[in-house]
Design goal:
single chain, Rossmann fold, 7 strands, 21% strand
Amino acid sequence: MNDRTSHFFDDYAADFDSIYGNDNRALERVANRLFRRAMVVRYEKTLAGCQPIQGRSVIDIGCGPGHYSIALARAGAAKVIGLDFAPGMLKIARERAASCGVADRCRFALDDFLTYPVPEKFDYAIVMGFMDYIRDPRVVIERVLQITRRRAFFSFPKAGGFLAWQRKMRYRNRCDLFLYREDEIQSLLSPTGASFLIESNGRDFFVTLEAKSSS
């Protein structure tokens, strides 16, 4: 992750926040947009996959404006850590956590996931919209497995096709972007020895990774 990517998402924070919306009507409008539909689907699948959540802990890597973190805290998570590299995103996340009454269980930090000190394992790890900007995905996957007790959720943007070409064109002067084929994801995950499921989700692959210590 480089400074150009950080600056882009810091400037983009308010627009990115509006993708998920704050009510069902906003979500329905987003879902009808082909390019953004995958973001809504992966959000719903991740929340469903983080069950049971009551009393559990979560790390949200590349948390953005905190939609996943706050939703899980509201659902009963005891501890949620959200990491991001864009101050504008974190400002929105902290304000929303406070307004939703879960600020005591949500901590948002401006930090690098690869160097962030993790004193203990988390039950769930969320890695949504993060691998798009990572030059060396193997080190991220390895560290996620090291700090996750139960299950991790990733999104990997698809290579090939019109949507991938369009996204490459939009981002070419903004920040580095890395796209994946399914066989590339298989080759990244297979050596870990962990069980995983790769699902096609529009412009993305949605990946569920079972931690080896899962119980």
